């Protein structure tokens, strides 16, 4: 069974996607200038991102358009941040070392998570006419573009928040805490002040990494994700120890491992829900490996057959109109249509 090719974004749709990405980039600063309450600004960013994504999808009706907007937002954010670093190095003024404020971090998270979850929820509940091979291809392209956007933002946050939160210094005394659960217990005792934020930050830091790895390779095992999380967490602590940008805790590695397993759980949960909705027909929705499913595009093929029949009928009617009137001409035309003349080939001429 043939599968219709998915139509890619046109130039106009691509420019609209880029414009939406620019709007998402400007949104947090514009909202922050309108109110002094941080929580209210974050709530308005969330609501605005939700509305913009919904209206954008309703107009374009392509999953990959949202992915292109997310990638545009990530590239502009990285470009502006890099320009700020270069400007700070050249001028050596205030803000020489790059940093993220809490509002910037939360806004970046909202502007990626809200459109991503919006599209995933739509795809999660797609059935019957809304679940075609064309929409599945479109969703795969969306995953590819949105994961690239997430990796750009993720690397920026990990480098300038976790590894290098301030300028490296070799004069600061290094310290390592080997006793497990010491830092975790300290965070639980001070949960009302900073403990909860610390646990959530370190516990979710490697969740995007494991989530992305499972999308890129759905066949990867959970113990492999656990090993990768351990290696990545160990590398982060080594960088912090080398640059003296933070105290090294064994508990941080345990929290990194927990974050990696949370990413595995979320990905498996989404796939399980999709498999339950489709009665086992679509078990790996979050995957870049597109496999055409037979029977989804039968309506499209029937439409193509009807169009071919209409074209043949129109051709026959045009031939009838071009010939002179008369029963003999009509009979000759019918014989020509029913019994087309076969011209002799070069081989036939040689044999004769």
Element-by-element helix/strand order: HHHHHEHHHHEHHHH
Helix content: over 70%
Total E-strand runs:
2
User: Helix count?
Assistant: 13
Q: How does the overall form come out from the CA principal axes? A: globular
Classify the beta-strand content into a percent band: under 5%
Biggest sheet features: 2 strands, parallel
Radius of gyration: 30 Å
- What class would the helix/strand composition place it in? mainly alpha
* Count of distinct structural domains: 3
Low-confidence stretches: 1-6, 298-304, 346-352
Give the CA-CA distance, first to last residue.
Answer: 42 Å
Mean pLDDT across the residues is 82
Strand order in space, largest sheet: 1-2
Please describe the structure with a list of short key phrases separated by commas or semicolons:
13 helices, two-stranded parallel sheet, about 350 residues, mainly alpha, single chain, 2 strands
Task: Give the secondary structure arrangement, pairings included.
Layout: H1 11-32, H2 38-60, H3 63-91, H4 102-124, H5 133-163, E1 176-177, H6 182-189, H7 191-204, H8 207-216, H9 222-243, E2 248-249, H10 250-277, H11 298-322, H12 327-338, H13 346-351
Parallel strand pairs: 1-2
Helix pairs in contact: 1-2, 1-3, 2-4, 3-4, 3-5, 4-5, 5-8, 6-7, 7-10, 8-10, 9-10
Q: In summary, what is this structure?
A:
The chain is mostly helical and 352 residues long. The protein has helices at 11-32, 38-60, 63-91, 102-124, 133-163, 182-189, 191-204, 207-216, 222-243, 250-277, 298-322, 327-338, 346-351, and strands at residues 176-177, 248-249.
């Amino acid at each position: 069974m043939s599968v219709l090719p998915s139509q890619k974004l046109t130039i106009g749709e691509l420019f609209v996607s880029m414009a939406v990405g620019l709007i998402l980039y400007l949104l947090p600063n514009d909202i922050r200038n309108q109110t002094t309450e941080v929580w209210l600004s974050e709530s308005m960013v969330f609501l605005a991102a939700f509305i913009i994504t919904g209206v954008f999808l309703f107009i374009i009706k392509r999953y990959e358009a949202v992915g292109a907007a997310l990638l545009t937002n990530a590239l502009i954010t990285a470009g502006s941040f890099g320009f700020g670093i270069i400007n700070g190095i050249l001028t050596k003024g205030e803000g020489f070392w790059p940093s993220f404020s809490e509002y910037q971090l939360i806004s970046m998270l909202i502007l990626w998570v809200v459109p991503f979850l919006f599209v995933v929820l739509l795809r999660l509940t797609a059935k019957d006419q809304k679940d075609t091979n064309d929409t599945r291809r479109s969703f795969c392209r969306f995953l590819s573009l949105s994961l690239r956007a997430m990796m750009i933002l993720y690397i920026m946050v990990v480098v300038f928040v976790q590894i290098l939160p301030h300028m490296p210094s070799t004069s600061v005394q290094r310290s390592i805490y080997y006793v497990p659960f010491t830092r975790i217990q300290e965070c639980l005792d001070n949960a009302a002040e900073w403990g909860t934020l610390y646990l959530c930050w370190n516990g979710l830091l490697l969740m995007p990494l494991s989530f992305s790895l499972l999308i890129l390779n759905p066949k990867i095992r959970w113990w492999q994700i656990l090993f990768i999380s351990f290696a990545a967490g160990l590398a982060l602590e080594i960088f912090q120890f080398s640059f003296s940008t933070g105290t090294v805790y064994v508990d941080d590695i345990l929290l990194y491992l927990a974050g990696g397993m949370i990413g595995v759980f979320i990905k498996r949960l989404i796939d399980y829900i999709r498999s339950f909705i489709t009665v086992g027909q679509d078990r790996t929705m979050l995957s870049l490996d597109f496999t055409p499913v037979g029977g989804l595009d039968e309506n499209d093929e029937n439409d193509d057959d009807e169009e071919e029949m209409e074209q043949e009928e129109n051709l026959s009617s045009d031939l009838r109109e071009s010939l002179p009137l008369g029963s003999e001409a009509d009979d000759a035309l019918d014989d020509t249509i029913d019994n087309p003349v076969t011209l002799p080939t070069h081989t036939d001429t040689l044999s004769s």
